[in-house]
Design brief:
alpha/beta; 17% strand; binds NADP nicotinamide-adenine-dinucleotide phosphate; 10 strands; four-stranded mixed β-sheet
Length: 269
Amino acid sequence: MSPVMHNAAFSALGLSNEFEYRACVLEGARLPDLVQSILTGQLQGANITIPYKSRIIEHVPVVSNIGFAVGSVNTLYREKGTVVGCNTDVRGFERAIEEADVSLQTKKATLIGAGGAARAVSFSLARSGLKELTIFNRSLPKARSLANLVRMRSRTEVKCHNLERIENKLAESSLLVNCTPVGMTGHSSDNTPIPAEVLSRVDIVMDLIYNPLRTQLLRKAQESGCKTINGLTMLVQQGAASFEIWTGKKAPINVMKKAVLKALKGGNS
Ligand code: NAP
């Protein structure tokens, strides 16, 4: 969705002659070439997605404080003769939570997943003053390493478990966030990452997936009486943050959102 969203925004602000956003497939070995292309001005900037959000860090000369703290970078840009890597997923998640009018201070939250997105979400949650965070992941070592990172950087109490143990271990939570691709179109759209029965222990369920907008997890959560939040606002807000860095102009958020919704409706959502 990023090309659709950014190209609509460039067009709305009359920047289409200057900017074009293209999706590219890149071999990991070519990450240094990508950084070099930005340094020499062949490219104005880039977004980085799965599976390079962490690996790119070793190739970027300057990493923002948040990118460094999260251990994940999704946006590259040129500044003062060098290339900077930063993380706009954090802002995207925080805006989505604000928009849904959710306050997490002194509350409990649960994360499913421990990849790049989970890193950004856990960083945001910890700095929101969350009391307790529980991370469930398919591979326990990755959950442990994320839990340690959050403990090092905040006062939030952090627990972690293998995803298989969720039925026994999920405590009552104000918010549960799915940071896995389970439920995504083309991946496993009929599935939920956790059994629907446990959702009655949760107040709000957020799925970072935006295609489809209503995942199976969100359907089940609604049936269990939970408030639900999909991944659309986070997608648009992280994109808006990148757009503002590249262009120096205020992002036309409504244009970006409309372009994504149109593409999802016309496409495979
Ligand atoms: P990632 O770094 O590859 O991490 C994926 C996570 O999902 C890992 O913890 C992995 O567990 C887990 N996982 C993968 N397949 C699984 C399965 N079949 N069952 C259980 N767990 C599984 O990916 P990411 O960058 O964090 O992205 C995760 C999701 O968030 C994607 O759907 C992505 O589109 C979405 N996202 C949305 C936004 C937005 O703006 N809305 C932003 C970022 C990401 P293991 O550690 O065991 O492999």
